[in-house]
Amino acid sequence: MLKTAVYRLDMSVNLRLVLMDSGQLFHWRVADDLAAGDESPRPDSYIAVVENRAVMVRAVDGGLEITEYISEVESGDKPDTAKGRAFWSRYFDATRDYGALRDSCARFPRVREAMEALPGLRVLNQPPWEALIAFILSANNNVARIRRLVNDLGRELGKRYEAAGQAVYSFPEPLAIVGAGEARLRALGVGYRAPYLTDTARLVAEGFPLEELAAMPYDRAHARLLQLPGVGPKVADCVLLFGCGHASATPVDVWMERVLRGWFSLSGSKAQIKRQAMALLGDQAGVVQQYLFHAARTGVLDGRTDELTGG
DNA sequence: CGCCAGGACGTTC
DNA sequence: GAACGTCATGGC
After folding, report:
1. Claim: this prediction has a pTM higher than 0.70
2. Which nucleotides of B are covered by protein (CB under 7 A)?
3. A17 CA, C7 C1': separation in Å?
């Protein structure tokens, strides 16, 4: 039987935007309207497993309601709700002052416009291992297929949990990916990325310091991640930003390259314009990047007549 | 059918 | 260090 712990976070989040459409998470899914054994429909509810925590989240009264489903045999007498609350507060980035960030970027019209146009967008803090696997899979791939691969990997190699009466699966542990082997991973559809996954998983299992990247200086953490097979400059920045709390890490994909060259008039190689963007946008450049990325990809700012930035 | 996908990697210059 | 072709697979 499952116990539940319910947490409320006093923060405004556009869950569909963040969990389904932002390109930073790929394993969340919309909960079915009718949870098993429950008569009430659950519109706008989302379920997933995050680091061995099965969870349902929905927006209520301008805040978040987070329901965690806890196995009695694993939790013992009662769950540690203080620890759970801290975990989810961290995960949803509850303590970052997005309003102050927007104000600090007032001299960049496109940043201000993007942040005003996407008020519920947030940069979540994922477990680094989950971000690492997801973004190795993301290379030269599309979001729909990344999501399918992550879900298939979880269902085949992860651990089964239950949230809102529905099956949800954790990310596979490193040894589960090593044990699966390249052939089985290819059969799951990961293609040429199979050896990247097994070799990286092996290195992590053998002690690669994933958990220590958060406390390392950005440059050193980035260089360290580049040593993993399947991890290049862009994937490394995604892991640092989405999985290690490095708010300055600024992934530059084709969309961000267009943004930085077009809206910010930057020039040079991708590595060079990334450095310029980080210097220009400050110690939370990666968070700013997420707004610019989504604005460019979806065209929410199209039709506005503002000129380029005021840098 | 061809083109693209939140790129990385090996080769070549 | 920069430029180039290649890499599975499926969405569209």
Report:
1. yes
2. 4-9
3. 32
Chain C positions with a protein C-beta closer than 7 Å: 2-3, 7-12
Kindly list the averaged pLDDT for each block of 10 residues, start to end, along chain A of length 311.
94 96 96 63 85 97 95 78 97 98 97 96 98 98 96 98 97 98 97 98 98 98 98 98 98 92 93 96 98 93 54 33
Kindly list the catalytic residues of A: 234
Separation of A229 CA and B10 C1' (Å): 13
Residue A148: CB less than 7 A from any atom in strand C: yes
Residue A20 CA: distances (Å) to CA of A23, A52, A57, A165: 8, 20, 13, 20
- Tell me the C-alpha distance between A37 and A207, whole Å: 43
Q: At what angle do helices A254-262 and A285-298 cross, to 10 degrees?
A: 100
> In degrees, to the nearest 5, what angle opens at C-alpha A208 toward C-alphas A235 and A254?
5
CB A283 within 8 A of CB A250: no
Output the CA–CA distances (angstroms, integers) from residue A193 to A29, A133, A174, A203, A216, in the order listed: 24, 11, 15, 15, 28
Q: Residue A306: its pLDDT value, please?
A: 44
φ/ψ of A225, rounded to 5, equals -65, -30
Is the separation of the CB atoms in A105 and A287 below 8 Å?
A: no
Q: Please state, in angstroms and rounded to a whole number, the distance separating the CA atoms of residues A159 and A52.
A: 8
CA of A177 to C1' of B3 (A): 32
Q: How many residues does chain A have?
A: 311
- pLDDT of res. A38: 56
Which nucleotide lies closest to A228 by the C1' atom and the CA atom? B8
pLDDT of residue A62: 83
Measuring from the CA of residue A189 to each C1' atom, give the nucleotide at the shortest distance.
Answer: C9
How does strand A160-163 pair with strand A166-169? Answer: antiparallel
